[in-house]
Design goal:
By secondary structure, the chain is of the alpha/beta class. It has 5 helices and 8 strands; from the N terminus they run E-H-E-H-E-H-E-H-E-E-E-E-H. The N and C termini lie close together (11 Å).
C-alpha cells in the first residue's frame, strides 16, 4: 500500500532559481497528497556538502538528506540536463549512499532541459546510476522543457498530467514489488 511506503523527492539542480525545483515541488505536493511520509531534498538550497570520503564529518543537512534517501522505499528524482549530463550536485548526493542497503527500492525520473535534446541519453545515465544501487527505475521517465514553467509554476497541463502519471506508476510499481 502507498500509505506504508516512505518516499523521497530529490530536486537535483544546485541553482538557486532552478526550474527543476519548481517541477519537483509540484511532484512533492502531489505525492504528499497521496502519502504523508514524503520528504523533499532540494539541492538548490545548497546545504548538502561536497563528498570528501567516508571517514569525514558532514553537516546535519547532509546527514538528513542521506538518511531520507536510505530510509525511503521510493525515490522520485528530478534532474536538469547540464552539458549533456545530469547535474554534478545529484551525482555528489549519491556518493553518500550505501549501495549495499538500497536493493529493491524503486525510482521515478523527471528530466528538464532548455530544449528537446539529450533526454534519452540522460535517462540512460541516471538509470545506470540507479542500477549500480540495485534500484528499479520506472522505464517511463518524464521529459520536460522549461516551456512547461510559467511564473514559477508548472503551467503546462500536459506536463502536470505526465508528472502525476509518473508518480502514480512508480508508486504502483513499488507497491507491487513490496507485497508480501
Amino acid at each position: 500500500m502507498v500509505e506504508d511506503m516512505k518516499i523521497v523527492i530529490i530536486s537535483g539542480s544546485p541553482r538557486k532559481n532552478a526550474n527543476t525545483q519548481i517541477i519537483m515541488k509540484y511532484v512533492y505536493d502531489y505525492t504528499k497528497s497521496k502519502n504523508q511520509d514524503t520528504k523533499l531534498i532540494n539541492l538548490s538550497e545548497g546545504q548538502v556538502e561536497c563528498y570528501r570520503g567516508p571517514d569525514e564529518e558532514y553537516n546535519e543537512a547532509t546527514k538528513i538528506a542521506t538518511k531520507y534517501i536510505m530510509d525511503a522505499d521510493v525515490w522520485l528524482i528530478g534532474s536538469p540536463i547540464y552539458n549533456s549530463f545530469f547535474s554534478s550536485a545529484l551525482k555528489n548526493l549519491f556518493e553518500y549512499i550505501n549501495y549495499k542497503k538500497t536493493a529493491g527500492k524503486v525510482a521515478g525520473i523527471t528530466i528538464l532541459a532548455a530544449g528537446s535534446i539529450g533526454f534519452i541519453d540522460v535517462q540512460t545515465l541516471i538509470t545506470q546510476l540507479l542500477s549500480y544501487f540495485r534500484v528499479i527505475a520506472n522505464p517511463k521517465a518524464v521529459f520536460l522543457t522549461t516551456e512547461s514553467i510559467t511564473e514559477n509554476i508548472v503551467s503546462d497541463i500536459d506536463a502536470q498530467s505526465r508528472l502525476k502519471e509518473m508518480v502514480d506508476e512508480t508508486l504502483e510499481m513499488a507497491s507491487k514489488l513490496h507485497q508480501d
